[in-house]
């Protein structure tokens, strides 16, 4: 959760917003969709409306899991709306993190992958943990994804 919080903090600071107010605001469109998307009574709906981000952490089994005899390699969240939210779930010692972002309400949302990797490196360094794997390859993939998302978000739309 420290990693996700740090990523969101880095994003907010990069956008000149130490308080995180640039994410959603009084006119945040998804708030109007909540009664439609979640029509059942909920004791948490008020909290959801007040938060800029919803972050969920679900520790999963720390050993291999089989489903119908087949080993599961990954597990991901299913999100029911477009509010800014992050889900972190683990399975067999591996962490999967999913971001759901409405690019209209979260400016420069395509920069989150770089902020996530920056925070991962800073957290590992602060804890004295060596990162196994090639961070430069991850950064190359994140940069490519950033370019694709930026192009998609700035392209004119035709109907």
UniProtKB/TrEMBL annotation:
Entries under InterPro entries matching the protein: O-acyltransferase_WSD1_C (IPR009721)
Superkingdom: Eukaryota
Boundaries of every O-acyltransferase WSD1 C-terminal domain copy: 54-123
Listed name of the protein: O-acyltransferase WSD1 C-terminal domain-containing protein
